[in-house]
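Q: I'm building a small set of examples for a reading group on sequence design. Run inverse folding on the following structure and report the sequence directly after it, with nothing in between.
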């Protein structure tokens, strides 16, 4: 049996929901949920996908700026980096939802060090 949470949903479902809409659902659950496991996954979602989103934004802006200044050569390299980041986000998204469903205590290496400060 899985315990119910502050929001009245199954804990396992809320852990997965923390990743479902990337950092947005993480923020919402971190603010409104009191369950420690759900808050952990919400904070992990915020740190992971928030950082990756900012990195994608930065690479995109750099790509546009350098394309305007230097031309196509830098655009190709930064476009490749954007594609790698995109697929890393997609794979992490699926992996984290599966692991949140299966293991309430799952942590990402390195990210968990940051999450400990929040939860």
């Amino acid at each position: 049996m899985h315990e119910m949470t502050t929001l009245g949903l199954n804990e396992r479902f809320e852990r997965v929901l923390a990743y479902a809409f990337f950092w947005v659902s993480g923020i919402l659950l971190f603010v409104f949920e009191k369950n420690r496991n759900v808050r952990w996954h919400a904070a992990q979602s915020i740190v992971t996908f928030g950082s990756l989103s900012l990195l994608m934004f930065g690479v995109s802006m750099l790509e546009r700026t350098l394309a305007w200044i230097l031309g196509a050569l830098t655009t190709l390299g930064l476009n490749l980096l954007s594609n790698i980041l995109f697929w890393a986000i997609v794979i992490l998204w699926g992996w984290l939802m599966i692991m949140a469903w299966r293991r309430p205590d799952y942590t990402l290496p390195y990210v968990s060090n940051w999450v400990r400060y929040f939860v």
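Residues 36-69 form the longest helix (34 residues).
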